Amino acid sequence: MSNVTSTILTESGTNELEIIEFHLEKQLPDGSTKTCYYGINVAKVREVIRVPETTDYPNAQPHMIGVFSSRDVLTPLVDLAGWLGVPTRQDLERKFVIVTDFNKMTNGFLIDSISRIHRISWNDVESPSQFLEAGEQDCVVAVVRKDGNLIMILDFEKIIADINPELSMEKYDVKVDKSVDLNQRMVGKRNAKTIMVVDDSAFIRSLIQDTLASSGYNVITCKDGGEAHEKLMSLIEVAKEEQLPVRELLDAVVTDVEMPRM
After folding, report:
1. I need a labelling partner for 157 at 20 to 30 A (CA). Which of 39, 64, 205, 231 fits?
2. What predicted TM-score, i.e. pTM, was given to this entire model?
3. Beta strand 73-79 with 45-50: parallel, antiparallel or unpaired?
4. Cα 124 from Cα 18, distance rounded (Å)
5. For the segment 162-195, what is each residue's pLDDT rounded down to a tens digit?
6. What is the pLDDT of residues 17-41, one digit of tens each?
7. Taking Cα atoms as reference points, which of 234, 262, 235 lies closest to residue 248?
8. CATH: 3.30.1330.90, 2.40.50.180, 2.60.40.1090, 3.40.120.10. Which one for 4-167?
9. How many CA atoms lie within 13 A of 64 on its CB side?
């Protein structure tokens, strides 16, 4: 499944996405195993490979196995099962690595097996809140039902930020960004502006919200396209009642192009 993204991609606006289904085999106390089903957007995957030879990294973060070379790029190898708290077998020769490429970062994630690629409609992607407890939702952005199984779509941005904070977008601080004017007059102007932020990743959504709010903007957040549509329609009703143009209530929308119920 190497170079998977070079041959199979969906275009933005088709209301479809493709995910790679992969598995972790959870070791149970009685010695048996239970298959845990996970997924990742194909667009984030560079390739899937056998476990490469790795080199230990000094002062590595927990769950970081080491580093390896992926197309001449030094790439961290993350023990995904360890981060998720899923006990699995340790025989690396039978495992695989998903090499991801997004946010200008390349990372490898250790998994037990690869299943297949699914092309699905965003309408079939469900919120994790109805399946998981509040704490568990932090690393799952969506759930897909396939062949009687629940496939958990993981928030890899959050995982990377947790394992290697030095590479995280969370380190960005608008207060020390000299390109952003934070004088009282500009902040006052932004206080009159409202921006809607729509993203299925709670981590990304919170990051954007904090940055905009720190700059002085009023922020409305939505976890998917459906919630954004509902809030937008509500604003339209308010605008009608007050005989105002909608742009008086909402100035801009910052959104991922593809997400559940978009």
Report:
1. 231
2. 0.72
3. unpaired
4. 12
5. 887 665 555 555 454 555 666 777 888 888 999 9
6. 899 999 999 999 998 999 999 999 9
7. 235
8. 2.40.50.180
9. 21
